[in-house]
Specification:
Radius of gyration: 16 Å
Helix content: under 10%
Number of helices: 1
Number of strands: 26
Order of helices and strands: EEEEEEEEEEEEEEEEEEEEEEEEEEH
Largest sheet: 12 strands, parallel
Distance between the termini: 14 Å
């Protein structure tokens, strides 16, 4: 268990960084960051590919566990993301300020809990793309799966979305956006609202 940056991918990496078989367990207040700065002022964007990642008992504290920012392109494939908690953003991943792209493929995202998004948050002209994923049994106060705002965009393709719970919106909350987000060819069932008392209990069990 440690605090701070577990992995930090900084400016002007000239080639793609590939990581496989990453296993994160019993971690508190630690994050993965990818940040290139404004792509107009950066010679090359940061490109990171992570495959075969697994998580268990990860408390990201005030951040998402994976944070993708300016000029970054993050691809995560064939991964099992479970038991990740965040006090603030999407529990597992936030694509934030600005023009960042995060893509998750062929992965299971289950038993995660976050305040804004049970799994994801996207904002400030960034994009999250999900393809052939199973997104189940996650909990969010604002959105059970993903929150999008301030021109954040998401695409969910050919995925299964079920048994996610939230106080406000069971799957996605979208506001203050100009562009269209899309959910295409997905199975969606048994997602539901829960009471304040239930969500407090669930978040408390996630923290502990």
């Amino acid at each position: 268990s440690r605090e701070g940056n577990l992995l930090y991918f900084g400016q002007q990496i000239s080639t793609q960084v590939s990581i496989s078989g990453l296993a994160i367990t019993n971690t508190k207040n630690a994050y993965i960051y990818s940040l290139a700065g404004n792509p107009q002022n950066t010679l090359t964007p940061v490109k990171v590919q992570i495959s075969g990642m697994t998580t268990s008992n990860v408390n990201a504290g005030p951040k998402s566990f994976v944070n993708v920012y300016e000029g970054s392109v993050m691809t995560i494939t064939d991964s099992t993301i479970r038991n990740v908690f965040s006090f603030a953003d999407g529990a597992f991943l936030t694509a934030g300020y600005r023009n960042a792209i995060a893509e998750v493929k062929n992965s299971l995202l289950q038993y995660n809990a976050g305040i804004n998004g049970g799994v994801f948050m996207v904002e400030n002209d960034s994009t999250i793309k999900l393809t052939n994923c199973t997104i189940a049994d996650n909990v969010g106060v604002v959105a059970g799966v993903i929150k999008a705002h301030n021109n954040g965009i998401f695409e969910i393709n050919q995925s299964r979305i079920f048994s996610n719970r939230a106080l406000a919106v069971t799957i996605s909350q979208i506001f203050d956006v100009t562009f269209t987000s899309n959910i295409i060819g997905c199975e969606i069932y048994s997602n539901f609202y829960i009471s304040k008392e239930s969500i407090i209990s669930l978040l408390d069990s996630s923290i502990n």
